[in-house]
Amino acid sequence: MEKIGESRRQFLKAAGLTAGASLLLPRSSFSQGTMQGERTQTIDLPIENGPNVDYKLQIKTVPVELAPDRIVSITTYNGQFPGPLLRFKEGQPVFIEISNETDTPEQLHWHGQSVPSEVDGASEEGTPFIPPRGKVRIMFTPKPAGLRFYHTHTRAGANLSAGMYSGLVGPVYIEPKHEPGKYDREIFLVLKEFEPTFSRGGDMDMNFLFPPARVKTLEAQGESAMKASLAKGMPHGFEVGYGSFTINGRMRGHAEPIRVKQGERVLFHVLNCSATEIRSLALPGHTFRVVALDGNPVPNPSAVPVLWLGTAERISAIVEMNHPGVWTMGDLADDDRRHGMGIVVEYAGSTGKPQWVAPPKFLWNYVHFAKPGTAAQAPDETLEMLIEKKNAAEEGFNQWTINGVSFPNTAMAPPSFHLKEGKRYRIRMRNASDDIHPVHLHRHSFELTSIAGKPTAGILKDVLMLGGYQEAEIDFVADNPGLTLFHCHQQVHMDFGFMTLFDYV
Ligand SMILES: [Cu+2]
């Protein structure tokens, strides 16, 4: 990764200028150049009020070694997986150049950030594509603070090297003006599978959400639709499985261990960057004190034995290292952990083979991190969304609908929901399928206000796991005008219809 600041210094040196001279550049030359994409590296940024962190991201396909003799060809940012950690400062503009060295148009989405549609990185919202062999330069003001990420936002369809099946993922940390919580070290963990293949059905056990209550009418509806489809001789729709599993791009046992000292407090920033999978993470003998969900501080930080993350969810959690040994921190799914989803945590002075001990059964409950007894503000309007699955209806893939409408496979579709700036909206989602959907709202954070019939308040997120045959309600304030995408973050769901657009009217 090259910081433009380096080039700037080189240029200034070559031109015989001092850093002070750049202060004389008029601001207009900066902003005009930015908007029209005409700026070259030889035009300096004004130091006053200018962005102080500039990055270049290069989209290119390279071999990546997940373990010795396990080398995959994937598209990456800057030839590495995960992409470089971008550290921004809340409210300080950043200037980024993205070049595309592949033959396909790309989109880079700033997940979890409140940015304009033009730079958000979704063609459905009108963000221009990064052309093949081309480049774009963008500027935006990072917000809100906390753990975000950037990733490709193209449809993959049946192409298992495109979209989130690729390695086009990297972490973002937006430093808040005041960093909360006490910790000694910070470690980013990017969870990601590779070598995807299609299978017919074969869902894993996903009964980990609390409360487990199902809505009888949704269940009856979904089950009868599925039965009718199978009775007609349809096979189960395609699902995706993986051959290798990694944390920070290395399979378990093939990365440098996380070396810790007794008494150390480590803040883990965990990102589920999977295209399709829900992940869990446990460290035997330790608990995770969850301090933020999707980068947003939680009202009631509390300790849990296991983390669960839907696709694109992030958790920041502090682990106090008080159980010496050599441990595997890994996924609860034995098969996935054995195929790489883990990393070794090694205490100073401890030796031996890494140990894994399965934690006791634990149900994941978002409300655990909310303040009990708090009530959400009433919305100005409630938007209803009924989610349904048509088994194997689109060339063997399940087709997904929101209120009976499947988002077309083309780049654009008219908005289905219309917002007025300043109003507070509630989205009431009803899932008439047995799948868990990590639903994502672009360009806005939302507040979880009800889950499986239980009201709550104070949890701010941008992805939420909507349980099978369950209901959930999320509220957001329409405070960022422009086209806004809402979709399931499961690639094989969003590509086959589970997507809708909001506009501001
Ligand atoms: Cu989904």
How many strand elements?
A: 30
Shape: globular
Structural class: mainly beta
Strand content: 35-45%
Average pLDDT taken over every residue: 89
Pick out the low-confidence regions.
1-53
End-to-end span in angstroms?
41 Å
Taking all Cα atoms into account, the compactness measure Rg is 23 Å
Helix amount, in percent? Answer: under 10%
Ligand inventory reads: copper (II) ion
* Sequence of strands across the biggest β-sheet: 10-9-12-17-14-15
User: How large is the count of helical segments?
Assistant: 6
The main pleated sheet reads as: 6 strands, mixed
Structural descriptors:
single chain; 505 residues; mainly beta; 6 helices; globular; disordered N terminus; binds copper (II) ion
Description:
There is one protein chain. This protein is mainly beta and 505 residues long. 10% of the residues lie in helices and 41% in strands. It contains 6 helices and 30 strands. It has helices at residues 4-14, 27-36, 117-120, 216-231, 334-338, 491-494, and strands spanning 54-67, 70-77, 86-89, 94-100, 108-111, 135-140, 146-152, 169-175, 185-200, 238-247, 258-260, 265-272, 279-281, 288-293, 296-304, 307-309, 314-320, 326-330, 342-347, 381-394, 397-402, 417-419, 424-431, 437-441, 446-451, 454-461, 463-466, 471-477, 484-488, 499-504. The strands form 7 sheets. Strands 10-9-12-17-14-15 form a 6-stranded mixed beta sheet, with no helix packed on it. Strand 14 and strand 15 form a beta hairpin. The longest helix is centred in the middle third of the chain and has 16 residues, at 216-231. The model is unreliable at 1-53 (pLDDT under 50). The structure holds copper (II) ion. Copper (II) ion binds next to loops.
